[in-house]
Amino acid sequence: MTPIHKCIIKRDKKVRPIWIMRQAGRYLPEFRSIRKRNKDFIKLCLNKKEVTNITLQPLKRFKLDAAIIFSDILMVPFGLGQNVKFLKNYGPKLNNFNLDKIKSVNKREFYNNLKPVYDSIKNVSKYKILKNKDLIGFSGSPWTILVYMINKSSPKNNFKYNFYKDKSFFHDLFEILYSNIKIHIYNQIKSGATLIQLFDSWAGLVDSNHFEEFILKQNKRIVDYTKSLNTPVICFPKGIHDYKTFLDYVKPDVISIDYKTDPEKILKFTNIPIQGGIDPKLLLGGKKKLETEVNKFIEIFKNHPYIFNLGHGILPETDPKMVEYFIKLIKGNK
Ligand code: CP3
């Protein structure tokens, strides 16, 4: 059994596994050099050879307990035929889409558009370096994908949407996302993903009147589906305040907390393994501060199953040496 499965299934408090959100990414010079040759990010995500290389890059450097397939949550809108581009210093840019048109995209078409993702997972899972480690597949949660689809760029600075206005439009889009996210998860698991993480990166945008409908219900049905495939599922509802309700309603196998959440508070609500929470900025410098924080997390979770990770993706300006130090603090010389 892999260390992360031991932590999840056996509730083993001693294994203390670790992986890092965005562990394959721009902070690694070897990623940047591949990226330089591949200007089109979506095409890169569909290139089996490069995806395999990039996914394995962090495992070659660091003692991590899992690989996460190199892909993006915006591959789902791409699979539905919405044009997605990633612009330098801007982030994702999506085209308008037509609801009737994406409604008419059938299962086979969606699958075919994303087949290279599944082929890459099959390929990665053959590598010996993954022995006794997990291969994490993932998806955006319906709400977070919907936000990018309708906002057509990151909602960081400009998300104004009247949730009341287009009720039936939201409902239809959620239904389309539900059936296609299921296909996406099913095929990742079938191809060799041993664990699924659901990124609800923009859960924090939803007001309390829509929390149940957009966050709880939508995550729950994807969690139920993933569990029915005998695969553990980690939820990352970034920015929410009511973790207790989320945990009671959605019942994920693992809850990943963001860096603004008090880990001690979550401990009180739940017996399930907790993941993450460490502020990615702590990897930007100051070894002493990082050590204090890691020790704090070790102490807090000494009697609780815990998966080390950050409270959001690793920042591109992180020095890989700090990642090495971070892992050493957790694992010693093991
Ligand atoms: O974690 C991993 O190593 C696996 C790969 C992965 C990527 N994106 C690669 C990526 C994963 C799991 C994601 C998830 C993702 N993508 C999320 C959820 C997590 C989160 O950050 O909240 C979101 C919201 C996206 C959408 C997305 N993709 C944005 C907003 C951006 C641009 C901003 C940024 O960080 O650059 C991306 C691009 C992206 N996805 C990059 C990588 C490595 C950078 C691309 C580049 O090289 O320019």
Can you give keywords for this protein?
334 residues; alpha/beta; 7-stranded parallel beta sheet; 14 helices; 9 strands; binds coproporphyrinogen III
Number of helical segments with 4 or more residues: 14
- Principal-axis shape equals globular
Distance between the first and last residues' Cα: 18 Å
| Radius of gyration from the alpha-carbon trace, in angstroms | 19 Å
Write out the distinct hetero groups bound to the structure. Answer: coproporphyrinogen III
Low-confidence stretches: none
Percentage of residues in strands? 5-15%
> In terms of quaternary structure, what is this?
single chain
Number of strands: 9
Q: Can you give the helix content as a percent range? A: 40-55%
What can be said about the biggest beta sheet? 7 strands, parallel
- The sequence of SSEs as H and E is HHHHEHEEHHEHHEHEHEHEHEH
Query: Mean of residue pLDDT?
Result: 96
Strand order of the largest sheet: 1-4-5-6-7-8-9
Structural class: alpha/beta
Quick summary:
With 334 residues, the chain is an alpha/beta fold. 47% of the residues lie in helices and 11% in strands.
